Structures are given as C-alpha cells and as structure tokens.
Amino acid sequence: MNNSQSRPIQLGRISYTNAWPVFHHFDPEALPFRTEVHSDLPATLNRKLKIGDIDMAAISSYAYGISSDSYYVLPNLSVSSFGRVQSILLFLKSPLEKVLHGKIALTTASATSVNLLKIIMEKFYGGKPTYEDAEPSLENMLENADAALLIGDHAIRASWTNHGYRVLDLGEVWNLWTGQWMTFALWAVRKDAAYRDPESFQAIYEALIESKGKSSRDMGPVIRKAMDQIGGTEAYWQNYFSHLCHDFGPDQKTGLQLYFQYARELGLLTSEPDLSELPSPTRNR
C-alpha cells in the first residue's frame, strides 16, 4: 500500500448511536497503516472534511451535497430510514398551524435534518416559519419558540421525558409525503486523499463494511453499549435499530436524489450533487 503520507489518515466517526452499527466492530489498530479517528457531531465532521482536516468521514447528506465535487461516496454505507427514524424529532409547543408561521428553534448538529425540516415546513405544508439556532436543551429551546428540532441522542433522551408536547418524526413525515427513503448521512472520502492512497482507503472501506455486517448479524453488543451509555431498555433499542438502514442501494439513492431536488427548489442547494462512488483500485490499474 502507498501509505507514505506525512500524517496518519484522518477518519471521522459520528458520535450518535444511529451510526454505531457501522463503526462498532471497526478497529483502526488492525489496519496495516496509521490512522486517527475523530468522534464528533455531524456538523463538526462536515466542516473538518470540507477543509481537509480529515480525509474520510460519515457526514450529513446535505453537507455531502454542497461539496460533492470534492468527495466520493463509499458504496452501500449510510444512515437511512423508510419511515420513522426516532431520533430526528420536532417537538411542538404550539399547534402545527401556528408553528408553520411561527418560530422554530434548531439544533445546529446536523445540516441534513435542518434542511429536511425546511422542506417539510415550506414545501409540504406551505409554511414560512423563522428559524433560530439554539443549544440542544428542549425546555430552553421552547422558552421563546413554538417548536424545537432535536436530533440524535439529544432527541432520544428528550423523547423519554414526560414533556407533554406533540412530536413529529421527520423521517415519518418525509415518507408519508414522498413514499421514499430518507438518507441522513453518507460515508465520504475526499477525492484528493483517495487519489494519493487508493489502496488504504479501500482497506478502510472494506473494514467498515465488515463491521456493518457483523452488527447486522448480531445487534446485541451495540444494544448493550447503547443501554450502558445512553440509557433505555433492550426493547427500545431493538425497536430503534430495526427502523434504521445502513445500506445505500438504489432505493436509498432515489430518496436522497429527491431530497436534493427539493433542496434545490428551495434554494438550499445550487446544483445537482454528484454521487460518484469511491473507485476500486483494481479498476484503475
């Protein structure tokens, strides 16, 4: 392998539980070259991959879309759902009719979810709310807003509380309106990094696919880790992970392309993203 770079390969790992099945059995120490893993929120990984601080990462689908010319997609890896996702939640303090023209407090942790909310509010329901960024604390967010968007583990924990609010699952709303899958995150590698060392990135990709396969055959270790670190019951996490898909096949791609189309129609994207996959080194010889 051509691993002569002056620094280790920098990998980004989404810290949220929804990506754990892909990463759980991935061991960077087992790779025959140096790597460093950065575990963080999607928004931070989005920024680090864009500026080149990391070479490969799981990032928000929207962040991939706005910088797709610089990236390759890693085939058959995503965080997707066909309906309920249970961790992309809009908590409504006011009736939906008021929310549509009111104020929504947003988490800034993931660009995909924020723009999915805008598509739902503006394109599907015909509303035009105002949005304000906020730290992910449900009660604080709703002090001066009609609704609050939480994602990931913050959304899960809030859903367990006796909050008394109506809750919209954005994955479910998307599916009801479109009949399509929703892909929230993709695995991407910078093209310049892939050109420098294609064999190493292929090896990382194959290790992630192997990890995903082990998790799909036995979710027990991932579920136990979630119970230990986040809380909740075994039944909750079995149900939660059963609604997630970590593949990225033709159906998920079709749903994501529709998301990108709606984002362009709302001016959230300026061009059609390129979903070119990481080339296999053997195909380039």
UniProtKB/TrEMBL annotation:
Catalytic activity: chorismate = 3-[(1-carboxyvinyl)-oxy]benzoate + H2O
Role summary: Catalyzes the dehydration of chorismate into 3-[(1-carboxyvinyl)oxy]benzoate, a step in the biosynthesis of menaquinone (MK, vitamin K2).
InterPro entries the UniProt entry points to: Menaquinone_biosynth (IPR003773), MqnA (IPR030868)
Recorded superkingdom: Bacteria
Species of the source: Cohnella terricola
An example Gene Ontology biological process: menaquinone biosynthetic process
Enzyme nomenclature, EC number: 4.2.1.151
The protein's name in its UniProt record: Chorismate dehydratase
Keywords: Lyase, Menaquinone biosynthesis
Entry's family note: Belongs to the MqnA/MqnD family. MqnA subfamily.
Gene3D superfamilies per the UniProt record, alphabetical: Periplasmic binding protein-like II (3.40.190.10)
Entry keyword Lyase: yes
HAMAP family (alphabetical): MqnA (MF_00995)
Pathway where this protein functions: Quinol/quinone metabolism; menaquinone biosynthesis
Keyword Lyase: yes
Signal sequence segment: none
CDD domains according to UniProt: PBP2_Sco4506
GO molecular function ontology, one term from the record: hydro-lyase activity
